[in-house]
Amino acid sequence: MGRYQERYTRTSGKIAKARTKLTIASDRLDCNQTEMAQLQEDVADLLSKYMDLDLDLFEIRLEIISRTKRGIRNVKTIQIK
Amino acid sequence: MSEVIVVTSGKGGVGKTTSTASIGAGLARMNKKVVLVDTDIGLRNLDVVMGLENRIIYNLVDVVEGNCRVKQALIRDKHYPGLYLLPSAQTRDKSAVSPEQMIKLVDSLTQIFDYVLLDCPAGIEQGFRNATAAAQRAVVVTTPEVSAIRDADRIIGLLQAGGIKKIDLVVNRIRIDMVRRGDMMSVEDVLDILAVNLIGAIPDEESVVIAANHGESVVGSDTLSGQAYMNIARRIMGEKVPLIDLESSVTLLHRVASLFRRK
């Protein structure tokens, strides 16, 4: 059942988009993909210290908000969802 | 007031040269004087895409080195009287021209033409620096693939750091059937990731390949991609043209399928 659903919700287009976002985020932060994955894990660990999280149900996404204003171009903001 | 636009992508093979030729043809159809400059020294392509490969006498390097005047190297297009090509050299390498020489060359072209379109080589080395040094504006071409979008993101960063303020995006080779199935990123997905202004989306059509085989452009033909390129040319000129709804341009098969779905 789970597999059947996954086939229909996670299309290859969605996978491509998620991979592109992660790649670009790691490019911009100058931080490799394994470190990015480690960061995601650490964030999850940190959060579960303070709240009851079921990590199978929650997904942690790191996205760079690139709305930079002129003059502060090097400011990188990470949004965690 | 002439405008100098670089067409670039980072990744190779996404359709920079085809886009340059098509946008140039579109501008020429609007009665503008346009020159397309092939800045890929050592690997020239724009001449074959335009079908002008056997008319080349002088090239860009000859002009820069003073072997001929600019006007001697310009080749007029077969279809549009206002469209010209400045071909690249095939037997030289990237180091034959410096960014300063390119700026000087482009300056002399802006005296004659309304639009100067620079077809940039792939990569971010000297060829890229040469082409972008002289540009005021950029058109970044990408396809809905992870690798092409990643490179486009890098290129956009480099263009911004280089002081180019107006950057527009062309999303090329969209296959509506695959987007509909969820097996290809949509134009919206790409924009969501790159966050730059979209100037046009080109469907992946056989007509583009067929036109290139003939050394012609799809612009002016009765195809979606031809229309899409024509609209990009209009938008470059500052006209407000709505985007073509690629979703509604369904094939007969889809129309039949949707008939059944409605019931």
Count the helices of chain B. How many?
Answer: 12
Helix content of chain A: 40-55%
CATH class of chain B: Alpha Beta
Enumerate the strands of the largest sheet of chain A in spatial order, edge to edge or round the barrel.
1-2
Defining key terms:
heterodimer, A: 81 residues, mainly alpha, two-stranded antiparallel ribbon, 3 helices, 2 strands, flat, B: alpha/beta, 12 helices
Describe the structure.
- Chain A has helices at residues 2-9, 12-29, 33-50, and strands at residues 62-65, 77-80.
- Chain A is mainly alpha-helical and 81 residues long.
- Chain A has one domain.
- A two-stranded antiparallel ribbon of chain A has the order 1-2.
- Chain A is flat, with a radius of gyration of 15 Å.
- Chain B is 43% helix and 17% strand.
- In chain B, a hairpin with a 6-residue loop joins strand 3 (75-76) and strand 4.
- Chain B starts with a strand and ends with a helix.
- The mean pLDDT of chain B is 93.
- The interface between A and B is medium-sized, with 16 and 21 residues.
